[in-house]
Amino acid sequence: MATAARPAAPTTTAAAVAAAEKRGALRLLGKTLTRLEQRLHALNVQFKQLDRTAENLLQRFEAHSESLAKQAGQDEMWSSLLEDRFTITEVNLFYSYVVDCLCYLHKRILEKVPDLVNGLPTLASVLKRKAKNPRIGAAWDASLQATGLQSCNVQTLCTFFVTHSYEAEYYTVSQRKMYATDLQTMIKRVVKNQILQDSLLCAVRLVETGDAREKLKEEAGTKKIVPPPRRKKLLRKGLKFK
What we know:
Layout: H1 9-83, H2 88-112, H3 123-129, H4 134-147, H5 151-164, H6 173-179, H7 183-190, H8 194-208, H9 210-221, H10 229-236
Helix pairs in contact: 1-5, 2-4, 2-5, 2-8, 5-8, 7-8
């Protein structure tokens, strides 16, 4: 009697179970990878936010540092002006060139915005409005470039003006020649603060050379170069440098 063949069902069942387990493991791995990708995406978003926050903080810190450095420089300038001991003649000579320089700069700015002349009676009004009015700002920048001055020079000269305007006397060109034949050498010798020294030298060079000299001679002829008391008062008010 022939022996009956054994059924292959157990082998088929084991393979099916193994395949099912493999599919389950793959689904579980897929879900795990999906969660991992989501977590990595969330971390990436957080890192970007932290990076932007750090950049903003760095910019604010740099701006604050610049502000502190600027304030320290201004404090040093004021301290130097108060501590330096110039003779009356030296103060008057420096003051005269400072006045001429600032008046000439003001005139150059007004030439570039003739329709705004009535609203810019003083250099102080220019300083107040240049940040808010693009045309005034452009005229300011162009005038600085044309005269060879920098904003820090103008700030220093204005500071000197405010410090000494009550006591100083304006010297005419002929009076200046009587008191000093080589003013640049005098400035280098007696002015210890480097910023003030550089600014005064710039003022002297501007006043004594080129177009400025001719225009200032014309102004002197009409006696408009010496600021009257009200002009001094207006110039002292609100000197803000941005």
